[in-house]
Amino acid sequence: MVEIPDSLRSLFSAPIEERNGTYVIEVPSSEVDHEALSADKTYRVAILESPGSTESSIQQKPQRSPPQETTSRVPSGPPVKKGEVRNVTIETVGDQGDGIAKVERGYVVIVPDAQPGDEPTVKIEQVQKNVAFASIVDSDPRTF
Asked: Where would I find the TRAM domain in this sequence (predicted)?
C-alpha cells in the first residue's frame, strides 16, 4: 500500500539506467516545465516497483514527448477544481484502502471505495496543492 504525503511534488514512471558507474533516473522535462520540480533543487525520491516490470522493460529508453511550443502557457496550480466531475482510472490502492488515480501532470486523485482497474466518474470534493479527494458519482459500468 502506498501512503501519499501532502509534500508529494511529483509522481512519474522512469527506468533506472547505468551511466559511467552510477545509476540515473531521468526526470521528464514536463515536471520542470509545469513547475512540479526545479532543476536547481534537491529532492527526496521514493522508488516503487512497477507492476509487471521486467528486465527488458527496464532497459528500454523512455519515450519522449514531442516538444511543446515555447509560446504555450505553463499551467499553474492543480489540474482539477472543486466540484469538477470527470472520469478517472484507478491505478492502485493507498494505505487506507482508497483508490488512487493520476490525471494531468501526474496529479493524484484519491477515490474512496475504488479498486485498481475501476473507471468511475467522480466529483472532486477537496483540492490541495499536490492531491485531490473525490467521491464516486457513477460507478464503473464494467462492474455490473
From this structure: 79-138
Q: Which CATH superfamily is domain 85-143 in?
A: Nucleic acid-binding proteins (2.40.50.140)
If you count DSSP H runs as helices and E runs as strands, how many of each does the chain have, helices first? 2, 8
C-alpha cell at 115: 479498486
pTM of the model: 0.50
d(CA 63, CA 58) in angstroms, rounded, equals 12
pLDDT in tens, 84-124: 999 999 999 988 899 999 998 889 999 999 999 999 999 99
How far are the Cα atoms of 17, 18, 109, 110 from residue 61, in angstroms, in the given order?
Answer: 9, 12, 28, 30
Domain extent listing, the chain: 85-143
